[in-house]
Amino acid sequence: MQEFIGYLPKIGEFIWDHIIYIETVFAIFVVFFQRKEPKSVWAWLILIFTVPFVGFPLYLLIGLNLHKEKMFKIKEIEGQINEAIRRQEASIESRKPPVKIAKYAYYSDMIYYNLESQGAVVSDDNKVEIFTDGNEKFEALIRDIENAKRFVFFQYYIIRDDELMQRIVSVMKRKADEGVRIIILYDAMGCRKTRRRFWKDLMSHENIKVAEFFPALFKRLQLRVNYRNHRKIAVIDNEIAYVGGFNVGREYIDKSKRFGHWRDTHLRIRGTAVTALSIRFAQDYDYASRENLFKDSSYFEPVTESREDGTAIQIISSGPDSSLPNIRNNYLRMINKARRSIYIQTPYFIPDESILAALLIAIHSGIEVNVMIPCKPDHPFVYWATYSHIGELVLAGANCYTYQNGFLHSKGMIVDEEICCYGTANMDIRSFALNFEVNAVIYDECIAKKMTEIFKEDIKYSERITRDEYVKRGLLLRFKEQFCRLLSPLL
């Protein structure tokens, strides 16, 4: 060991003397062996060549695209899912969509795309409840866990060991003692501040299982900054499911001085769409735990209730386990199909060129485009890159707002007050390509109108970014915007 340490100065000297050759090798790797967008390639090349001792390790941490198709394998429940897909394919191809979504035939190409690209079956027997307040959402979730009879799936990007989670844990332990199976999945990066003894205490209870997604090396070193599991899914007995933007922590129930009121959007779903979220959870849990939940078909038995006024939903997901950026493609298709209005809420607005171009075309085509972002940053570099892209829409004629009543974390889009798409995905490159995300596409005028009304209510607590205000912004603000926009492919 001492002999190796003695060689370290010589190794450092060799690297310094040959840094140009090492940079060239990295440049060749970035350009020819990693399939990246050209602007992302240029951003990395500039960083590697200008600050090599920062650029190299940073690229290894967040820039490297691993062989994703080998890392993540999507499992399927072959029988009923494949049969449902074939049935809906035939229905759409014959231009006879399911009765309750026949009036949404204008969006049949989107339905078909989701069906073909990821097997997302549309179901039209669902009931949807919308939550915009964390206290109300978690009261409902805790009540549903208390009423669980068979199992609870619980997956969040951030789970803090605080008063909110302790309250949930106390209910989970009591239900586990009654024989209810509790299965928890958390992301290692999102929960890096949560002590390990918290998870050990949970796992010590019979009927409670816990899995960690992409665990840290030596329990502390996070080598995979990319590929985070950003999904938030809770399923109770395959009867009720939750999906949306709220994580689990005191800031999400308005107990953070830094953020104040936390404005988010979360959905409570009953109906066949719940099974799609159960399957999504099981795929992630199986990868993290190497335990095949699909061996027990009782987890996925649909609970059918006849609803004449049922809501049509497709559950879509994207990330390293997808061959296509499905959520991004749905947003793009929705923008392109808009005829009257588009409403977008997102904490981070860093769209790729296609999304930005589609929005600009919509604006210049006379379509009303409305975008709302937070008034304060939780990640400064991301915020100023967001403000730069928002400015481009403002100059084109969009209605853009900064939410002033706390922190806006809601993630979704409404088109023509007919359909909407809400879930865990931000309107940014990271959510589109690198994070594991899940959204619900809702084909229902009633829900879309409710979402629009909520957006318009939020405008009362927002400030509009006017063209004159944006043009007159100071030199320092302009510098922040441009600098962070250059880094946007890396954010």
Short description:
The protein has 491 residues and is α/β, with parallel strands linked by helices. 44% of the residues lie in helices and 20% in strands. The chain folds into 3 domains: 64 residues, no CATH class; 245 residues, Endonuclease, Chain A, CATH 3.30.870; 165 residues, Endonuclease, Chain A.
CATH topology of the largest domain: Endonuclease, Chain A
Q: Strand portion, in percent?
A: 15-25%
Query: Pairing-aware structural class of the strands and helices?
Result: alpha/beta
In CATH, the architecture of the largest domain is: 2-Layer Sandwich
Distance between the termini: 39 Å
Quick tags:
Endonuclease, Chain A; alpha/beta; 18 strands; single chain; two-stranded parallel sheet; 491 residues
List strands and helices in order, with pairings:
Elements: H1 2-17, H2 19-32, H3 38-50, H4 52-63, H5 68-71, H6 78-93, H7 108-118, E1 123-133, H8 134-146, E2 151-156, H9 163-177, E3 181-187, H10 196-203, E4 208-213, E5 233-236, E6 240-244, E7 262-270, H11 273-289, E8 311-318, H12 326-337, E9 341-345, E10 349-350, H13 353-364, E11 368-374, H14 380-396, E12 399-403, E13 407-408, E14 412-415, E15 419-423, E16 427-428, H15 429-433, E17 437-443, H16 445-459, E18 462-464, H17 467-471, H18 475-487
Parallel strand pairs: 2-3, 3-4, 7-13, 9-11, 10-16, 11-12
Antiparallel strand pairs: 1-7, 1-8, 2-5, 5-6, 6-7, 8-17, 9-14, 12-18, 14-15, 15-17
Helix pairs in contact: 2-3, 3-4, 6-7, 7-12, 12-13, 14-18
